[in-house]
Specification:
Layout: E1 11-17, H1 28-40, H2 50-53, E2 66-73, E3 77-84, H3 89-97, H4 100-108, E4 120-124, H5 127-138, E5 152-153, H6 155-158, H7 170-173, H8 179-203
Antiparallel strand pairs: 1-3, 1-4, 2-3, 2-5
Helix pairs in contact: 5-8
Amino acid sequence: MRKVPFVEDEYYHIYNRGVDKRSIFEDYNDLERFFQSIKEFNSIEPIGSIFENSFDKTRIKQDKLVEIVCYCLNPNHFHFVLKQFVESGISEFMKRLGGYTWYFNNRHKRNGALFQGRFKSNHIDSNEYLLHVSAYVNLNNRFSGKSHRLSKSSWDEYLGKENDCICNPDIVLGQFKDTKTYQKFAIFSLEDIIRRKETEKELEF
């Protein structure tokens, strides 16, 4: 049982990485499959498999388990900011995403765990924390200076440059004058995080 239980209408930073820091996306097909899982499995009613669901042309929009505020998928780890809509919504959503391991192992002829244990979670208990963690997640794939080719984030959704949207950024963007103001805030926050990490390394002995 988790030390901090998930509560409806509260926000959480959810993250995990590949076991032994291994890649969880070997190519673009893997990345797109995980992204498709995020879209398809975020429904209260179970859908079966993604393959089966692709034939259901009559399926109407389902009520969601969670609200996705932002996300970042990296070659060996991922981040989400989620708001839980229903009881156990986050746990159920992440359990369904765990099915990606079967797809990955089957496709790449491997066995065993893909992710490093249970996913990690932090309760976002203040508005300031929410704003800064949104910047951290949206730009997480740019920590090295540029985005990796096998990464995908909600940054373009926030900037209005993405048509295939899965996020609701209103809780964040609604607190800024316009998109450009948030963009400046997020980039400054990223630069501040990088500076602090570099300082911490310098102080290590």
